[in-house]
Specification:
The chain is α/β, with parallel strands linked by helices. The protein has helices at 12-23, 54-60, 78-81, 87-107, 148-167, 193-203, 225-236, 254-265, 288-294, 302-321; strands at residues 3-7, 27-32, 45-48, 67-70, 112-118, 170-176, 179-180, 209-213, 219-220, 223-224, 244-246, 252-253, 270-274. It is built from ten helices and 13 strands. The strands form four sheets. A seven-stranded parallel sheet has the order 3-2-1-4-5-6-11, with helices on both faces. Strands 7-10 form a two-stranded parallel sheet. A two-stranded parallel sheet has the order 8-13. β1 (3-7), α1 and β2 (27-32) form a beta-alpha-beta unit.
Amino acid sequence: MKTALVLGAGGFIGSHLVKRLKREGLWVRGVDLKFPEFATTEADDFLIGDLRDQRVVREVIDRRFDEVYQLAADMGGAGYIFTGEHDADIMQNSATINLNVLDRCHKRNISRIFYSSSACMYPAYNQEDPDNPNCAEDSAYPAAPDSEYGWEKLFSERLYLAYARNHGMKCRVARYHNIFGPEGTWRGGKEKAPAAICRKVAETPDGGEIEIWGDGLQTRSFLYIDECVEGTIRLTRSDKTGPYNIGSDEMVTINQLAEIAMKAAGKKLTLKHIPGPLGVRGRNSDNRKISAELGWAPSVALTEGIAKTYCWIATQAMANRR
């Protein structure tokens, strides 16, 4: 039986990845600081542990695995990573995890390892025009991420690629673009834009008002969770190293995202624009490379993904009020 190790298995993407690997018949070990918040883990073995601690990493990676998925990181939405208040923790925590994990995988002769980077590593100067952002994989340099979170992701990409070159490891690197869906964080400050907007729409009576940071004309693309898992597994099992974008190229403004959520809810609300952390002005996944080299592109439309996500968040919000 093939085996897989999912680091960050208590998180949103990690917990969905565990489910998919189990459906494929793999034996799966999950590791995180916490269990999944909204569903029971389907991992065969789940360890609560801090991957910043080398002793924990030695316990977790106690043998060879056929596939290792490294998703563990200190991260969150714009309200967490763009304020500057958490920069030192974000860089220290995530870099330490990656250094520990790669060293241990190399020493256990584990070769196939996936690393989840982020579109936040792209240069801010290529994302000033909301209508024409440049997020092609080869646009990463000269480097100029707009946050320390992005700088750490860029460093860790290079770390994994260096291990691949120097130690013959089959490291695979993907740059995620705004992943969303059911069972993701939807309140508390670390939620991403789709979850935050769905929550606001769910909690506001028809005809009411919700707040949007900035003028709402900043652009983004958002990838539904099932598509993210599919792209991740395909890249991991391929003979390609990357980095590759894993994201949707269906770009919308934040105002349009709010309209899509309102349509899913059957509500008409007013948008109140307020100051807040924004990140870059425009960002969209450039899927030309992954489509040409891996033969894959996402197919779930944003309206479909938001409809499913809104339904789940509205149910959560109603239960929370009760």
